[in-house]
Amino acid sequence: MPIKNRGVSKTVFSIAFIFVFVFPVPAQDNDRSSPDPDWMQVEAPQYNPEGLQDPFVPFVMPEEPPDALPALERLRPLTPLERVELGQLRLVGTMQSPEQEIMAMVEMPDGKGFMLHKGTRIGPNQGEVLEIHPDRVLVREYIQGAYGIEESLSTLKLRPGDSD
Questions:
Q1: Which UniProt keywords are listed (predicted)?
Q2: Alpha-helix runs per DSSP H in 1-160
């Protein structure tokens, strides 16, 4: 009996094979005159960027230093006094001119001397001489700190025994 069943199953399989793969099935008519049901109609989502953050803009923007100097003045070459840190300068003395303008003399690390007036640019951090007193010089600088650009006041003091 098992042999007869095997022959019948081969025959049925062969007939099914012929009908499925050899004889073509007529294609259905794809008439698009009838609209698709509502659940098949897809609407493109509308994107409105108003009020939303731009994903291509960095979260943290670098902070620009305040423009203590005009744009053209920042492009000028630095003087020797602007290339040296304030801590490397030594206040040698102060003097007052007949016109009542007080000036100060500082010594560079290499021994060269320079005269300071009110408004003289000094130091690498856009420093400027604010006041000159008989025993000290007050300088304002802009220094990069932990919370951004900060204004710093520094003092060059005349050491006892340095005045002649």
A1: Signal
A2: 2-17, 71-74
